[in-house]
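From: lab user (bench 3)
To: helpdesk
Subject: output format question, protein + zinc ion

Hello, I'm new to running complex predictions and I'm not sure whether the block I got back is the full result or only part of it. Here's what I submitted:
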Amino acid sequence: MIQRETSARMRRSTAHPSGGPVRTCIGCRKRELAVELLRVVVVTDGNGPGNGPGTVTVDAARTLPGRGAWLHPDPQCLHAAIRRRAFGRALRITGSPDITAVMEHVGAGAEAP
Ligand SMILES: [Zn+2]
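Helpdesk reply: Thanks, we reran it on our side. This is the complete output you should expect:
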């Protein structure tokens, strides 16, 4: 009989074994490994909560404090998130934040009218 020692090795190479942290994309609402997603956080102008929606910035290093949201680095997911106002909901802010930085990061270009 042939020892099937390759099976264990093959299993390890597929996706993430037992997984890393999983987050939900605010655009398409699919669950995804956090490493595959973009973390965005909202930065307020220092006026405290309730005084303007603030600016959403890309947390590439995943070290920024504050409430974050997760998104596929994909223009389609970004537009879906904008359409359903997922940023406000995920980041617990009212109004539409400035997401120019996120748009530039995913290559979505200028905002559509
Ligand atoms: Zn997505």
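A quick orientation on your result: Helices lie at 6-13, 75-83, 86-91, 100-106. Let us know if anything else is unclear.
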